[in-house]
Amino acid sequence: MASPKKEGFLTEEQREMLKIATQNAEVLSSSPRSPSKMVLPELHIKGGGGGGGRATAVGVRHIRRSHSGKLVRVKKDGAGGKGTWGKLLDTNPVSRIDRNDPNYDSGEEPYELVGATVTNPIDDYKKSAATIIEEYFTTGDVELAATELRDLGSDEYHHLFVKKLVSMAMDRHDKEKEMTSVLLSALYADVISSGQISQGFFMLLESIDDLALDILDAVDVLALFIARAVVDEILPPAFLKKAMRTLSESSTGLQVIQTAEKSYLSAPHHAELVERRWGGTTHITVEEVKRKMTELLREYNEHGDTVEACRCIRELGVSFFHHEVVKRALILAMEIQTSEHLILKLLREASEECLISPSQMTRGFSRLAESLDDLSLDIPTAKSLFQTIVPKAISDGWLDPSFLKSKVSDEEHRDEGYEKLRKYKEEAVIIIHEYFLSDDIPELIRSLEDLAAPEYNPIFIKKLITLAMDRKHREKEMASVLLSALSMELFSGDDIVNGFIMLLESAEDTTLDILDASDELALFLARAVIDDVLAPLNLEEISNKLPCICSGSETVRIARSLVSARHSGERLLRCWGGGTGWAVEDAKDKIIKLLEEYDSGGDVGEACQCIRDLGMPFFNHEVVKKAIVMAMEKKKDRLLELLQECFGEGLITINQMTKGLSRVRDGLDDLALDIPDAEQKFLLYVEHARRHGWLLASF
């Protein structure tokens, strides 16, 4: 066998290893944060004249760069002679840096890796998209949605926006479905490409099985969305055939395609049928809506027939887009100043007839105010004219006086408080939507605690109930169950009361979008009383705090009637079909039964398992309360042993323990009627709790 080729004292293999070591040393020494050494395989160098020599270890840690940039060999530990590479066998894996050494170099100090949060751009995009969609469903502002989507600057993800928009609309009312089709048509080509719209719909076809778990008629609804997209010419007819070739034979997506073709696109007069299916605008595009608005306003300016103009506005069927009527009417009044009287008369009539809601009126004025600089290029007196119109509108009562307060400068808009509130609202909507999907109350509570903004709790309640009112019975039941949990775990009584007051004050605006909003809100109020979220006296308190002319007073009266009706408790607990969670009363009954069973000789492990099976960790303070009260009544301390076991296992937290004892303390006056020495026993139990660390220091 041929011996390896030699050059000097090193074989080819050894020279290659030395080359790699030298390169690594150069990299390390050139980095100001490089570690002090790198442990590499030792290089065995033959000594002398080729006889059986000794192996010398070459350690990379003895190679460093001098200030002149040259690689030098550094003598270490005094071993070897001048110019040598240290000890013959330097196997010490640990390199110590002596800061008193004349050759000390701070660049040799070990560095620490600092962790950084890695965000997924797709997740960020989805969250932003959900916020844009929710805001669009609330305001109906197509232009704003298009602008915000464009501002995201993530064009490559727009197919995800299509999927998110349609999937959210599928689980909503016909109004949102129609709004979704209108928005897709408005975004087509200008913001979202044809390919991305096709890709978004194909993703919906692939995920139809998951959607069908929450939306029973998902196949038919998605088929109608696809048919509508074809009729609106934002999906090519070839999309259907291409999708059928791509989808697997077992895919439910094929059923969607077949339904779209046979039930909708093959029917006589299918275009008109599909466009009117959701009772919306017969789907004229946004540009056509704007054109019709301009035409009816100019016709009104010529003839002055207010009744006819209101009828035309109503027939447009775009209540969510009425702010555009306001904006265009005001611009017309500025362009033709002799028409100002007629235009203001029309807006006043539309407001008095509730044709244009206060929120839409205010938004129309706000949008015009934002564009005054550009408008002044065509109408030099636009700003002065606008400043004269606003006081007239406020004095006539058809523009909310708060509009003047909302006209803050850009600097004020950037105020920290304003930004915090805006971000809170965005986060609240996302949290509520996630709850409606997951039904996970503990996770929602953790999310609210992470927001750390208890001053905005009433706003969260308003958002929760407003979103639930526009959804199905399942979400309404979930909202009521969540209110019960929040009132016990996180929100104060004042938070709940103020949240309902805010809801009732805006009831008139809500009714324009949700026809039965008043009745639904009355049910939420009555259900809150039955669930002990509100006390009956709170209804009177809420009514007294409402403005005299507020329609919310009638809603409170209806709620009182519901509460006082015969068998109201059972009926209200089942008013939305029971939903996905337990009613509060059911949970209380189960807690009493498990405590009685344990007290009569039950096993502590079994009792803990029963508490765990309740699946309501946010409600465990009720276990504490009922255990303490039962111990007072039966004069037994055995129940305290159960509480100690639950606390020791972490089943009942210190917060829940504190809250449970706080609720007992709050009800001592009532307890004293049945248990005369309730207060003395309570003090003993508190002392016991303190000794065992059950209570927060603030108790």
Automatic annotation (TrEMBL):
Subcellular location: Cytoplasm
A Pfam family this chain is assigned to: MA3
Lipid metabolism is among the record's keywords: no
Gene Ontology terms describing biological process: negative regulation of DNA-templated transcription; regulation of translation
Region (Disordered): 90-109
MI domain ranges (all copies): 124-245, 288-409, 423-544, 586-699
Domain of life of the organism encoding this protein: Eukaryota
Keyword terms of this UniProt record: Cytoplasm, Nucleus, Repeat, Translation regulation
Main location, first listed in the record: cytoplasm
UniProt-listed SMART domains: MA3 (SM00544)
Gene3D superfamilies with a match to the protein in the record: 1.25.40.180
GO CC term (a single one): cytoplasm
PANTHER family assigned: PROGRAMMED CELL DEATH 4, PROGRAMMED CELL DEATH PROTEIN 4
Family: Belongs to the PDCD4 family.
Name recorded for this polypeptide: (wild Malaysian banana) hypothetical protein
Taxonomic placement: Eukaryota, Viridiplantae, Streptophyta, Embryophyta, Tracheophyta
